[in-house]
Amino acid sequence: MRFRSAVDRWHTLLPPLALIALALTWGSSPAGVLAALLGVLLAGSVLAGVHHAEVIAARVGDPFGSIILAIAVTIIEVGLIVMTMSGPKAQPTLARDTVFAAVMITLNLIVGVSLLVNAGRSGEARFRSKGSGGMLAAVMTLATVTMVLPNFTANPGPTYTPAQLGFAAVASLALYVLFVLTQTKSHRDYFLPVDSSGQQVDAGDDHGHRPTDRETLVSVGMLVASLVAVVGLAKVETHAIEDGLAALGLPASFVGVVIALLVLAPETLAAGRAAARDRVQTSFNLAYGSAVASIGLTIPVLAVVSTVYPTPLHLGLEPIHLALLALTCLVSILTVVPGRASRLQAGVHLVIFAAYVFLAASP
Questions:
Q1: Which long-range contacts (CB under 8 A, 24 or more apart) does 202-205 make?
Q2: CB 3.0-4.6 Å disulfide test: which of 83, 127, 234, 270 passes with 281?
């Protein structure tokens, strides 16, 4: 019984353990079993941090709850990127690789899994094309401004000039703020879930119980502890991550895929559960909303960090990734516009994601 209780409270027990491990290993370069153990604590701290951010978001309510959750996830993502970039093998493309991986995960993996789960049960998944289409348009615009246009400016290389990077950062942040206000205030009904017959369902069931003041305060403390643990352990684990990828024969750029999968794991699971409850629109809100936040908040923060960090930001995508992004956008439009989708569309999205992962591992 005590073991079961401890398992249920893993998200409260793990951050302090991670902080203790960080204090004991700071400044070292662990390897072997110790590095593997720290990797588990790092992954657990990410999941715990997202969990506690969700608790705080549920207590605060929209729109500030969504903003708090997005900021917490952004801090985790940026912390992992910056600490990994600080290693001996600096990767100027790591930010781009991570953000692009987040786009591919949200638009293909999460959407594909959600459609497969729901359409497999009801035969056809139903959602709101207005809300989903608006979110998809925001993602496509953000991805183009931040990761496509840098390849076509007069500035040599896949980089922006400081002025261009500043414009992209401000535009990304402005579009994210507009997205949050649209989703939570002016057109909230566009994002409410519908059932298999197309009728609106009560969205209250998706939020669960409202956390108490005590639960919220505990989550605030655990969120701070998780963020510190994630950033610190990412720094300690930099050498082990690089050595592990080399041992597996994976390119250094695959770190971005690992970071994005780790950060978006909670959203992927939550989207699958929502789809199983016939809430595909909720799944799409998680998928497209995470993509908008990943670009709209991460790029502005990294733009500020780049002013004091020696490694340049290579944001422009390579030709193979440009092709995958274009295919993803086209398929996503065809999926979203009708407001309904079958297992075929789910399979198409999952195949695109599988192609992305395979080519990332074997470019």
A1: 203/282, 205/277
A2: 127
Q: Dump pLDDT digits (tens) for 152-195.
A: 988 877 889 989 999 999 999 999 999 988 888 878 888 888 76
pTM here is 0.86
- Indicate the SS3 state at residue 194: strand
> What kind and span of H or E run contains 175?
helix 162-181
Measuring CA to CA, which residue among 294, 353, 295 is closest to residue 104?
353
Place of tokens 């956390």: 211
Interatomic CA distance for residues 344 and 112, integer angstroms: 10
Which is it for the CA torsion 277, 278, 284, 289, positive or negative?
negative
Domain count, the chain: 1
| 341: three-class secondary structure by DSSP | strand
Which pLDDT tens digit goes with each residue over 87-135? 555 677 888 999 999 999 999 999 999 999 998 777 889 998 998 999 9
Expressed as residue numbers, the domain containing 56 is 2-361
Contact 237, 31 (CB under 8 A): no
User: Is pLDDT of 314 > 80?
Assistant: yes
Residue 266 CB coordination number (10 Å): 20
Q: Which helix (DSSP H) or strand (DSSP E) does residue 114 occupy? A: helix 111-122
User: For residue 194, which phi and psi values (nearest 5 degrees)?
Assistant: -125, 155
How far apart, in whole angstroms, are the C-alpha atoms of residue 278 and residue 358? 31
How many angstroms separate the CA atoms of 159 and 174, rounded? Answer: 21
- d(CA 189, CA 134) in angstroms, rounded, equals 13
Both tokens of 326, joined, read: 């274009």
Is the peptide bond preceding residue 63 cis, with omega within 30 degrees of 0? yes
Cβ-based neighbours of 137, under 8 Å, separated by 6 or more: none
Distance CA 299, CA 166 (A): 10
- Kindly report the number of other CB atoms within 10 A of residue 357's CB atom: 17
* CA 44 and chain centroid, separation: 16
> Is 283 in contact with 271 (CB distance < 8 Å)?
yes
